[in-house]
Specification:
The chain is mainly β. It has a single domain, classed as Sandwich (Jelly Rolls). The protein contains one helix and twelve strands. It has a six-stranded antiparallel β-sheet, covered by helices on one side. Strands 4-8-7 form a three-stranded antiparallel β-sheet, with no helix packed on it. A three-stranded antiparallel β-sheet has the order 9-6-11, with no helix packed on it. The longest helix has 10 residues.
Length: about 150
């Protein structure tokens, strides 16, 4: 997992060959003006989902993980609390290959706050419980295929 300010994202481009394309997309997009829905950047290799989340309490947040994609999560409005646990410390979960997701029945081990202007990169080893907010938020989740 990486958490940092969005202006520092370029320091992490060596982590995946698609990250320079992500940077180009983020630099060219008017992020606050994006409408909810899916934005195809490079087919199934690289795409973004713009979401409006509803309020969610910690106890309602479910840990999830992905095997095929890295999640780059960027809150656009409001503060988002996220939970995280290492997959290695969780019991096995059923994997839905069609949706590239596993859900876990354990609470997150740690929580942290992410504000607009920040980002989080979640890798396959990071089970995460996003979108914990008091008022709901607008966010973008960029799905980056693992190579």
């Amino acid at each position: 997992m990486v958490i940092d300010k969005i202006e520092n994202l370029k320091q992490y481009v060596s982590l995946n060959p698609l990250l320079p394309r992500v940077m180009a997309f983020l630099d060219s997009a008017d992020l606050p003006a994006l409408q909810a829905g899916r934005i195809v950047i490079e087919g199934e290799e690289l795409f973004a989902n713009v979401e409006h989340t509803l309020p969610k309490k910690k106890e309602d947040a479910v840990l999830e993980s992905h095997d095929k994609y890295i999640d780059l999560q960027i809150p656009l409005t409001g503060v988002e609390t996220m939970g995280v646990s290492s997959r290695a410390e969780l019991p096995e979960a059923v994997y839905d290959s069609g949706r590239d997701i596993s859900f876990y029945n354990s609470p997150p081990m740690n929580y942290f706050a992410v504000k607009p202007g920040m980002f989080v990169l979640f890798f396959p080893q990071d089970a995460h419980a996003p979108a914990i907010t008091d008022e709901g938020i607008k966010k973008i989740v960029v799905k980056i295929r693992i190579h």
